[in-house]
Every structure is written in structure tokens, then in C-alpha cells.
Amino acid sequence: MSNSENNVASYAIIGFGKIGQALAKAFARKVIEVSVATTRDPERFASDAATIGPTIIPTTLTEAVKADIIFLAVRFDAHPDVAKALPTWQGKTIVDVTNAYGVPPEELGGQPSGRVVAQAFTGGKLVKGFNHLGAAVLEQDPAVQGGRRVVFLASDDDDAASQISALADNLGFSPVQLGGLSEGGLLVQAHGNKWGQLIFKDLVKFEG
């Protein structure tokens, strides 16, 4: 599946609930091929994928994790199971779209949820992003009244942050990099039963 030999990144979305489908619609609008997978047989959600568009490719989890850039759109507590799909995530960028709302901070060892996810995906580069918008907003065209809907990104890896920033821009969003997971990332991560300050903020950047 990987197109890295041709210097063209390949994409996959793990999880095909409301958020996963909203992300798929963003790719479909730009006619960018993306694989979608769950733990179910791909035939069980193939019709939903086809409804979104021909560039949305239902596949197995085993095949989907071969992509270069992987959007993690599952429940937070399901991320360790996804991480087991590969012995190492070296060379891959994981976009963490999960929200650990309701998870006691002590269960995270006092760490931001994004860093906990990063530790599960050994060897991979993690970017926290696209998680601050609800599915109903995320699935909409990000072009709004002459502006572009903002997506916040945070990562401890500058190269990965730049990579996903460029992708977000290509998908029509206006990316805003917040810095590392323990600084700006905390603004878009839930803390127990409290949301981060920027979660569910529907901001639009006007250009020109």
C-alpha cells in the first residue's frame, strides 16, 4: 500500500465511526485515496465507504497499517489493540484523533493522553490533531465564508508536525501548530472529566 518509493505518502484511517467517516469525507472532497479499516471484515462497511466516494478504500487492519500516515479514529481505550498490529511503527506517522475524556489522570500517569498513545506506537511519530472538532463539524467543507476552518496540531516531532500541517492544508483546513504534547497539546486534550481549552472550538481563519 505504501507509495513512499514514489515520494507520495499513503493514508489510512483506523476506525470508521462518525469521526472516521468525517475524516474520510475530507479526503473524498479532495479526491485523495485513503484506506479505511476497523476490526470488522471490510465487506461489512464497504457500502458506507462507497457512499462517501470512490477514493475511500475499505480494507483490513493488517493492510491499513501499511500506510505511511495513519489516522487513529478509535475510542481512546482501543488504541493499545491497534498498536499491537505492528511490532514497530518505525517510519510511520500516527495522527491521534482520540479523546481520553473520562479517563482518570492517574491512569495516564500524569501524562498528556497524546504521549500515552505515542508510547504505545513504538518507533512511530505522533501528531495530536483533528480531535477538537465534533464529527458534525469535521465532516463539513472547511471552506467557510471566504475563510478556512482551523485544525490544531501538536507533536514532539517537528518533522511530523510539518508533514501533517501540509496534509491539513491540502485537505482545505487552516492548520495551527501548538507546539509539543506537554505544552500546546494540553489545550486540545481532555483531563479527566474536563475538556481542553480548545476542544470543540470551531475557529475559521480568514486570509487575504
Write the layout of secondary structure elements.
Layout: E1 11-14, H1 18-29, E2 34-37, H2 46-52, E3 56-58, H3 61-64, E4 69-72, H4 79-83, E5 93-96, H5 113-120, E6 125-129, H6 135-138, E7 143-144, E8 147-155, H7 158-170, E9 174-177, E10 204-206
Parallel strand pairs: 1-2, 1-4, 2-3, 4-5, 5-6, 8-9
Antiparallel strand pairs: 6-8, 7-8, 8-10
Structure in words:
- This protein is of the alpha/beta class and 208 residues long.
- It has helices at residues 18-29, 46-52, 61-64, 79-83, 113-120, 135-138, 158-170, and strands at 11-14, 34-37, 56-58, 69-72, 93-96, 125-129, 143-144, 147-155, 174-177, 204-206.
- Strands 1, 2, 3, 4, 5, 6, 7, 8, 9 and 10 form a ten-stranded mixed β-sheet that branches.
- Strand 1 (11-14), helix 1 (18-29) and strand 2 (34-37) form a beta-alpha-beta unit.
- The protein is globular, with a radius of gyration of 16 Å.
- It holds the Pfam family F420_oxidored.
- This is NADPH-dependent F420 reductase.
- Residues 11-99 form the Pyrroline-5-carboxylate reductase catalytic N-terminal domain.
- Keywords: Oxidoreductase.
Q: What is the count of DSSP helices, taking H or I runs of 4+ residues? A: 7
> How would you characterize the largest beta sheet?
10 strands, mixed
Please state the CA-atom Rg, rounded to the nearest Å: 16 Å
Q: In total, how many beta strands?
A: 10
Nearest-integer average pLDDT: 92
- Rounded to the nearest angstrom, the distance between the terminal CA atoms is 38 Å
Low-confidence stretches: 1-6
Shape: globular
- SSE order: EHEHEHEHEHEHEEHEE
Q: Which class of secondary structure composition applies to the elements? A: alpha/beta
What helical percentage do the residues reach? 25-40%
**Strand fraction band?**
15-25%
Protein name: NADPH-dependent F420 reductase
InterPro entries: NAD(P)-bd_dom_sf, P5C_Rdtase_cat_N, STEAP_metalloreductase
Domain Pyrroline-5-carboxylate reductase catalytic N-terminal: 11-99
Pfam families: F420_oxidored
